[in-house]
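Hi everyone,

Forwarding the result from last night's run.
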Amino acid sequence: METAFADLKQRLAEIGDLHKVQGVLGWDQRVTMPPLGTEARAEAQATLGRIAHDAFTDAELGRLLDKLAPYGESLAYDSDEASLIRVTKRDWDKASRVPTELEVEMTREAARGHHAWVEARRTSDFAAFLPYLRTNVELKRRYAECFEWSDSPYTALLDDYEPGMTTTEVKAVFDVLRPALTALVAAAPQVDASFLHGDFPVDAQRAFAERILPTLGFEDGSWRLDPTAHPFCTSFSNRDVRLTTRYRDDDLESIWSTLHEAGHGLYAHGIASSLLRTPLANSPSLGLNESQSRTWENLVGRGRPFWTHWYGPLQEAFPKQLGAISLDDFLRAINRAEPGLIRVDADETTYSLHIILRFELEQELIAGTIALEDLPEIWDAKMKEFLGVDVPDNGHGVLQDVHWSGGGIGYFPTYALGNVISLQIWATVREALPDLDAQLAAGDARQLAEWLRENLYSLGRKLSPRETLERLTGLGDIDPQPYLAYLREKVTSLST
């Protein structure tokens, strides 16, 4: 069995290397590639996708996994070896249902769609993006048809990001969130945040972000930060983490965008080295991964302890704009509940409403119950219904997110699930680190990062999402009540 297991690891390592090359090409396309390189990049991605898919779905690999199954079952359930065999078998069973040509076409069109989206968003031209959206939606419908689903074809897409969770289960969580969040937003007081808009030079924002990031638990030389049209994080090992952010010279949203992506980056940075070059070197689900980006962005990055240390340096960076603003007024402003147009700029209270809107639309896209050319009008109507805001143009509306340009349908729900999960995990963190506030107020986030690395990040995908959450919190179910209690307390505090 040792020889067979070594063979499995070698095969998976080489396939993983191909995916890393794809990842480098994807990072380059979104950060540094000139726009006219799109077509060549799409073909390169398609070629690599074909090679990787064929290698992973090879029947010999399936037979090897079947041969190793009894060996894995004889080991401790959460051992590296047993977990690798079990998780890879699930991945193989799913990937083997997808024809290579479909996989290649999805990869190619995702690369093409990204460039089309960047330009369409810049010019607010939905008609220019529509052909690419139509292609990606059709491909995802074909993809969903490869699987058996119990409640909705959307579940097949959701499972790519939140393994084992159904559309019905997500809806149950969102059915609790939506009315409660709507009531909270309606009850929230108005807060003066005018000082957060003005003249904030990009160079100063970049310098401030690069001052904070090394204090969050990254090893020197393991990360980099670059600007992009839509912030994201990717990694090619736990020592090669690529963070991106979006700077605007008239506000400070880049701070929380950077902290958000740093949360993703810290997860990748904390994965155990023993899991590298295997399918286990990732998070169990995007909901769990997103819980950490939201933890660092909001639970840390909008908290008084964090800004007790960092507000002085921020005032020094922007003395004209913030020099006369008290810490209390700053905290009220960055924690206000105020409906807005843009998801990535949304406050904690309204953010999940943006996600629930997209969750509803995505199900209709896959079901074919709405015409794609009507999507901007439908989007605008739902924004009015959910958030009470009028959308001025498609760039601030239906074109604002990158996800659909690459066929990333099923991804959006994980953001709101991550919000919910973050509070479940945070309760455990606070119990384990009773002096956490004092540490953060002293500018020390290392113990928080270390605890999360030891208890969550290092596990990679060894356990399922439910098993991972249960190990951390004692409860495997996603419970929205701690999240809602946290928001109610926050909104109440704005009135005092």
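Residues 26 and 111 are 8 Å apart (CA to CA).

Cheers,
N.
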